[in-house]
Amino acid sequence: MNKIEKIQIPNIKDTSLLVVLDSIELEKTLGYHDLFLLWSPTFQKAGIPVYIVFPDESKQLKEYCRYYNTYIHYVSDLELIKRLDCIQEKIVFGKKYSVILSKMYVVHNGYLLEEQKRINNKTIKKLYIKALELKFENFIKKIKNSVDIPNILW
Hints:
Elements: E1 16-20, H1 27-46, E2 50-54, H2 58-68, E3 72-76, H3 78-83, E4 87-92, E5 95-100, E6 103-108, E7 111-116, H4 121-135, H5 137-145, H6 150-153
Parallel strand pairs: 1-2, 2-3
Antiparallel strand pairs: 1-6, 4-5, 6-7
Helix pairs in contact: 1-4
């Protein structure tokens, strides 16, 4: 398995959230998708884009993008899902199935820095805070190292 620090995502330059989900047509995936719809305004206010990667065709994802019209970016990229090691083989009653594991990552400066394997409100909040810390790390350092005069900060 690759260490997440070594995986580079060259198309994402800003601090953002990258989410891998199974097919958009599955009920479980729609539950996760609904969570991100609820969190979307919060990420938008902070300027942190959310990219959700699906194995579905981009034509199918465009319909969802038009329907929901949110700050979420829908991406169709099976190769990225494989690179992130999100595909697992399962055997049920003697038949092999490929299952896509749902995962979330914080991307900063083109690299994955944080990974969460469970998706719920608590873990989304945790990654949101981590993304904020990374996005505003220079500003936070400036505040910590400054003299206690408010005008210097702004």
